[in-house]
Structures are given as structure tokens and as C-alpha cells.
Design goal:
It contains 16 helices and 12 strands. By secondary structure, it is of the alpha+beta class. It has one domain: Coproporphyrinogen III oxidase, aerobic (oxygen-dependent coproporphyrinogen oxidase, 3-Layer(aba) Sandwich), CATH 3.40.1500. The strands form 3 sheets. It has a 7-stranded antiparallel beta sheet. Helix 7 runs parallel beside helix 11. It starts with a strand and ends in a 6-residue tail after the last helix.
């Protein structure tokens, strides 16, 4: 690791050093060879940079045929659609950091993603781990302790930990507190909705966990699976268990993007006792204005997580994300994408769970550095109005196309407040609005109409 210290230089020398170092680092960042962990223990004049190279070799990947094809109309072995029930140093793009040093504050080194941190999930007493949650888990702790190795327990612990980690990181930057709202579903299960409204940084921030069970009709189960696999229930009913963590964050500042993530697990039992299971989820970014360094950081963090499990995952799931978060009646994507996958049920439950776990570990490092970077950016009334218009598009997608929202609204016993949590407090619709050519708003529209490769 190379550590460059500017604090001993005078102002002119600092400026010159920054420019020289920026030029060198921009090349590395563009080449995909640079990662910047930023520690809260460092002064603004200290930059620590670490180079890395492709991890494609030396790793045990799943077969290429399993990751396979993800385009619409093509078949992916083990990729099927769950429109599920619910929906840590942070890295920063070096060029963006140097260009915005006055606005960029540091995320904690303690949030660094490491293999040790990922493995820690499997260790320790259930009760001890639960003490770090926003509140006790949905399932009784004694039940979780009694089936510690069961996938339902492991997934519930993962989504509870993801909720707590993200909420605490958001509280730290905002200064506000989440309202923790625990709810029960009469038909079975319940959830925990954590919502912060009208904070200093976030107009509305929600991080939900749900763990529900009961019986589905065969028709309802078919609607959830993109390849329409037939599931045979007893008397037309299928016992099921669904759980997931979902979040949508709407910042006040138009230069801080909206972020969404959702990771979920579904399990159904057929008439003969056979259990079908699958995972789904993803993370995507919806900026109001394009910032290439932010886009690189976000996508590269996701790519690193995907590359640990299969070299084709990021490419396939990035394309899938662009297709899914597409507002057909507008001819534009909702944002600049990320990754998205549905119905992942091979090559093995353990391998898919480990992949989902890696993805869930990215929610802080792919987003919080961007928040800190733009925390003190000034903005105009016109920029705020543009943010409101883009939020209108967000609302349109969620209510018209999002399968998770539609499934939730149609599921008996669903908690409507937790589903509608994804919508912003405020939005705007202007008749026949089109940004002027050559503006930053027009540049944003060009990207939304023609998705780009950011890594």
C-alpha cells in the first residue's frame, strides 16, 4: 500500500502534488486497477491507495454453463424469477475523491469487506449476533438456535445483519434515528420496517426485513417464476416461506443518488414433500446527475463481489438489471443500474447463498462513499426540480412494473405501509417535460435511454 501525505506541504505544493497524483491515479482507476479505502482516522490530506488485479485466477468458480445466458428469451440454467415478499473501508473512485476533496468525508475503515468478515457470519452464538440487530429477529431466537444450520435460519440472520449494518451507517451520516416498526402477519410471520423521514441528509430512508410463511396457490407460485415451472401442491396449495431485506434511500441533495437493494430467499414444499428453493435480488443506483467516478465505484464494487463467484456473473446480471429496471412506456431505464438476478437455484444452495452473502456485504461500501463525497454539494432550485421529476419516474416504475411491489400488494396479509415505503415523500410530474440540449439533464437522459458500461 502506498500512502501519500500532503499535509507537510505548503498550499501551492499541495495543489501541485494533488494534480500530479490525480493524473497518475486516474489512469489506474480507468484501468480498473485502483481501490481506495478511506479511514475516518486519516486527515483529509492523507490518501491511501492500493492496487489490485483480476481475481479471476486461483478461485474455484462455478461452471460457465451455470451462469450461462441471461438475455430475455434465452434460458438460464438455475435462473428463475422470484418477485419476492420483501423487499464495509468503503471504496471511492480516486479521481472523484481528488476532484471533490473539499466535499468528500470518509467512510469508516471498519466497514471494509474481507473474507474474514464474510466467514464471521457462520460463527458465534445466535443470541450474541442478535444483539447487534435493530430489534429481535422475526423468528423466535430459540427456534433459530434449534435449527442453526438450516438455510432459513442462515438467511434470516444475514438479512437482519444487513439491515442493521446499513441503518447504522445511514444514521451516522445523517445524525437522525430510524423508527423501528415491528409488525406481524396474521397468516404467518411478519417483518421489521426501519424508516427515517425528513432527516438532515435523507428525505426518506427505509430498510425492511420480512419473514413470512403460509400457503400459496399454485397460480401464485407460477406467477413468481419467470420460466413458469409447474409446482404441484396438495389440494392446490403450496406451503411456502419467503424472506428478504429491501431498501430504498431518497436523499435531499440532488447530487446524492437514490439507491435500492433487495436480497431474498424463497422456499416451497410440493405435494410429495420435495422442497423447491431459489434466491433473488440485486443492487442498483438512480442518480439525478451523471458522475462517472461514482458510477465506476458503484459498479466496480458489485463486480468484485460477483467475480469471487463466477467471472460471468457481473456481466450477465448487469445486463439483466438494465432490462428489468426499464420504464417501457418512457423508453428509459430507471437509473444507471447495477446487478439484478432472479430464481437462482444452482449449482448448489450453499454456493448460491455465499454469492448472495457477498452481494449483501456491498451495500455499505458501494453507496456510503458516494453519500460522503456529495454531502456538502450546493444545488439550485432548478436542480432540485429536476430531482423531483426523476423521482416521478421512480414512482412510475415501482407502481407499474416492479414485480415485488405488485406481488406484495396482491398477497393476503401484506403490510401496505412497508411496500409503499419505497416511494419518495415528494415527486413531480411536468407535462411534456424535455431538458434542453447540451445540459447536464440532457446528458442524464442520454444515459438512461442508452445504458452504458461503467467498469
Amino acid at each position: 500500500m502506498a500512502t501519500i501525505i500532503f499535509c507537510s506541504l505548503n498550499k501551492t505544493a499541495q495543489t501541485t502534488a494533488r494534480r500530479c497524483w490525480s493524473s497518475h491515479l486516474k489512469g489506474l482507476a480507468n484501468a480498473g486497477e485502483l481501490h481506495l479505502p478511506l479511514s475516518s482516522t486519516h486527515s483529509p490530506s492523507v490518501v491511501a491507495a492500493t492496487r489490485w488485479f483480476c481475481r479471476g485466477t486461483g478461485l474455484r468458480f462455478m461452471s460457465h454453463g451455470t451462469a450461462g445466458k441471461s438475455a430475455a428469451g434465452r434460458t438460464r440454467r438455475g435462473a428463475l424469477a422470484l418477485s419476492g415478499a420483501a423487499a464495509v473501508a468503503a471504496a471511492a473512485a480516486v479521481a472523484g475523491f481528488l476532484a471533490n476533496a473539499n466535499h468528500f468525508q470518509r467512510a469508516e475503515m471498519a466497514t471494509s469487506v474481507s473474507q474474514a468478515a464474510e466467514d464471521k457470519e457462520e460463527e458465534g452464538d445466535i443470541l450474541e449476533r442478535c444483539r447487534g440487530f435493530m430489534c429481535p429477529p422475526v423468528t423466535d431466537i430459540s427456534v433459530l438456535q434449534g435449527r442453526k444450520e438450516d438455510m432459513r435460519t442462515r438467511m434470516e440472520m444475514l438479512i437482519m445483519e444487513t439491515q442493521a449494518e446499513f441503518c447504522k451507517a445511514l444514521e451516522k451520516v445523517d445524525g437522525g434515528k430510524f423508527k423501528v416498526d415491528r409488525w406481524e402477519r396474521n397468516e404467518g410471520g411478519g417483518g421489521i420496517s426501519c424508516v427515517m423521514q425528513d432527516g438532515k441528509v435523507f428525505e426518506k430512508a427505509g430498510v425492511n426485513v420480512s419473514v413470512v410463511f403460509g400457503s400459496l396457490t399454485e397460480e401464485a407460485a407460477r406467477q413468481m417464476r419467470s420460466r413458469g415451472k409447474v409446482l404441484k401442491g396438495k389440494d392446490g396449495k403450496l406451503p411456502f416461506c419467503a424472506m428478504g431485506v429491501s431498501s430504498v434511500i431518497h436523499p435531499k441533495n440532488p447530487h446524492i443518488p437514490t439507491v435500492h437493494f433487495n436480497y431474498r430467499y424463497f422456499e416451497v414444499e410440493e405435494e410429495d414433500g420435495t422442497k423447491q428453493w431459489w434466491f433473488g435480488g440485486g443492487t442498483d443506483l438512480t442518480p439525478v446527475y451523471i458522475n462517472k467516478e461514482d458510477a465506476f465505484l458503484f459498479h466496480n464494487t458489485l463486480k468484485e463481489a460477483c467475480d469471487k463467484h463466477h467471472p460471468q456473473y457481473y456481466t450477465d446480471f448487469k445486463k439483466w438489471c438494465d432490462r428489468y429496471f426499464y420504464i417501457r412506456h418512457r423508453g428509459e431505464t430507471r437509473g444507471i443500474g447495477g446487478i439484478f438476478f432472479d430464481d437462482l437455484d444452482s449449482p448448489s444452495q450453499e454456493e448460491v447463498f455465499n454469492f448472495v452473502k457477498s452481494c449483501a456485504r456491498t451495500v455499505v461500501p458501494c453507496y456510503l462513499p458516494i453519500v460522503y463525497k456529495h454531502l456538502n454539494d450546493s444545488f439550485t432550485d432548478e436542480e432540485k426540480a429536476w430531482q423531483q421529476i426523476r423521482r416521478g419516474r421512480y414512482v412510475e416504475f415501482n407502481l407499474v412494473y416492479d414485480r415485488g411491489v405488485k406481488f406484495g400488494l396482491a398477497t393476503p396479509g401484506s403490510r401496505i405501509e412497508s411496500i409503499i415505503m419505497s416511494l419518495p415523500l415528494t415527486a413531480r410530474w411536468e407535462y411534456m417535460h424535455e431538458p434542453a440540449k447540451g445540459t447536464q439533464e440532457a446528458e442524464m437522459m442520454e444515459v438512461l435511454r442508452s445504458p452504458k458500461e461503467w467498469v
